[in-house]
């Protein structure tokens, strides 16, 4: 079975185009040279604005339009489950991808199927013409973004962080009882690769969270950038590459996250998206290899078999089996804490019209706005500003806004009502981010995991002088604080 070819996770637009051309006996290898006047990326032809070749005018059929041919296509179907005499039966209807669900009291769901139909060649050609501009835009974007990714990886002045969620791992035992099948723990896997011209460092984050959403992405990225430094060479720009699902990466919250990263680290940050279904890379190998190695270890015959029954177990086993990959475990509780710290971000975020068509977002800390473009070669931009007007800043915040990065403050955490000393790492008119210490006897020390989250200015108790080293065990004291002050 290992030798059986399997080509999965293909692009629907590309596959349906290949199948149409195959039915029409048109070779894809020379297709675009034959039907476009100019195949240069982002040319008017690729944008569908050339009058000489628009709407497939230059397609030359080698078979008669009236000839009946067989055509396979990936089609979105509506599956409707009807109740009949106490039993369920399925009926299927083909629908357009953008069609509304059927109005019915029966249960319905969408499903993709590869269907075989018999149609005349002229009808298949007309289908191709109807989809022409969608196909052109998609393929043009795919090639531009792929070319940009290769250029970024070889850049002398940039570091690429490619990220993606892998398919979950289901914890199973080599020998298990039947009912254990229904209670297996699931491991959420987030993969990342930090790529420079001379190096590639891989990361695997394991978690018990069930949510693969924007809040989880934000928590994971801050852990990577703050707690696990990438290769030490200095670069002028950080570039994040991912695919474009709106629930995870391509949304207004993540655009604010990009702005935040750039402002906090005082460096140019870009987020670039591959074309839909074309974001494959080294990150896919990280997740696949981790799941394969862990499963082999669990299923191997041994007097003391390895047992993986939780995300934490998975991370510990993967860390041993993949020594060159940095494997981290981040529990749901830590993600929720980061989510709570960023809840202010969701207030009054500006809408971004047409964000699904954008594939490049960039923010420079010296600029006042974030810029979005349709692709790496597009000259037109959409500017998104996150700066507040002076009138939007409450008068009572005037003193707090004077707090700057590098200051030391005492802040109260709403979660437990306790106060913690820490260093300010970011400020804006509504909030500040503070990297806090924890109590250690009568002194203070840095926690094992960096505790660097957002606070409102009203949570600032007072400003502090920089801490003084107390002994040689990594402990510090603050001139203004006594132990009783924090109790």
Give an account of the 3D structure:
This protein has helices at residues 12-23, 31-35, 121-130, 132-153, 214-227, 252-265, 282-299, 311-321, 332-341; strands at 68-84, 87-94, 107-120, 158-170, 186-195, 200-207, 237-242, 268-273, 325-329, 360-363, 369-373, 382-385, 408-412, 419-427, 431-436, 438-440, 443-445, 452-456, 460-464, 468-469, 475-477. By secondary structure, the chain is α+β, with helices and mostly antiparallel strands. The protein has 3 domains: 5-81 and 108-141, no CATH class; 155-174 and 183-384, Nucleotidyltransferase, domain 5; 407-481. The strands form 4 sheets. It has a 9-stranded mixed β-sheet, with helices on both faces. The longest helix is centred in the N-terminal third of the chain and has 22 residues, at 132-153.
CATH topology of the largest domain: Nucleotidyltransferase, domain 5
Assembly context of the chains: single chain
Largest sheet strand order: 9-6-5-4-7-8-10-11-12
CATH class category of the largest domain: Alpha Beta
Strand content: 25-35%
Q: Under the CATH scheme, which architecture of the largest domain would be assigned?
A: 2-Layer Sandwich
Distance between the termini: 64 Å
Uncertain stretches of 5 or more adjacent residues: 99-104, 388-401, 483-487
Overall SS class = alpha+beta
- Rg on CA atoms, Å: 27 Å
Q: Provide the helix percentage.
A: 10-25%
Number of helices: 9
